[in-house]
Amino acid sequence: MGNQEQYLLNDGHLIPKIGLGTFQIRGYEGVEQILTAIQSGYRLLDTSTNYDSEGAVGEAIRRSGIPRSQFFVTTKLPGKYHHFDDALKIIEESLLRMGLSYVDLYLIHWPLPKRDNYVEAWQALIEAKKRGFVRSIGVSNFEEEHLEKIIKATGVTPAVNQNEIHPYWPQENLVKTNQKYGILTEAWSPLGRGSHELEEPVIKELAVKYGKNTGQIILRWQLDRGILPIAKAVSPEHQRKNIDLFDFSLASEEIKQITALEKTDGRVDNQDPNEYEEFE
């Protein structure tokens, strides 16, 4: 998958160490933005049924001239389709929208524990993998109790858990939980939202030290913690910078300094996975 370094998932598949997020990237303009990212070297493309960008991702892959096998495509299950049959149908629908015969990684987008159908949703993902619709299966925004419940119910451990992780919300305990189960942690909103984290003095000092921008320092902090950041960027310059992370690494003390920026109210939109009712 290009020249990127890769992580090995617990099911034996390889995944690039950084991905392009496509939230709010859609339509023909979105196709062009994804194409520029592909040209910059991105091969992991992260979408979701709820992002309405699946079509743009599929079209960009076709227009790129690069074989499908070189890409790692992720999409996600919306909360309204957590029942078994509904989940399988919407997975098929995602494949139709993208014009692909399979996706590399399929995630349950949110656990929605108030509704408590996520075990059934996980069973549907296991079935989708058996049918060849998806190669790896995982979850997003799952806390330890949610992970324990699906693993105990099915005996199948997710390959990935995609969580909100950035300097104001580093999620040290959850990252350790994922590691305990052999689950790769992905980070959504890895730079936070807005520019506050990019302006933190410690991060600015490290940017000067390493000759990088502050966004690159934060993304490297994610990688040095064994996390895969899903970074959204629409400008070609930002796309290129966000992927240019593999010629340096942070010292352990520097990693701790960034992690220490944690805030008790650090979530970007106060989306607590135990309370959040997804896009409703």
UniProtKB/TrEMBL annotation:
Keyword NADP: yes
Keywords: NADP, Oxidoreductase
PROSITE patterns: ALDOKETO_REDUCTASE_1, ALDOKETO_REDUCTASE_2
Record-annotated NADP-dependent oxidoreductase domain positions: 17-262
Species name: Leuconostoc pseudomesenteroides
Keyword Metal-binding included in the entry's annotation: no
Family: Belongs to the aldo/keto reductase family.
Membrane-spanning intervals of the chain: none
InterPro entries: AKR, Aldo/ket_reductase_CS, NAD(P)_OxRdtase_dom_sf, NADP_OxRdtase_dom
Protein name (Swiss-Prot/TrEMBL): Aldo/keto reductase
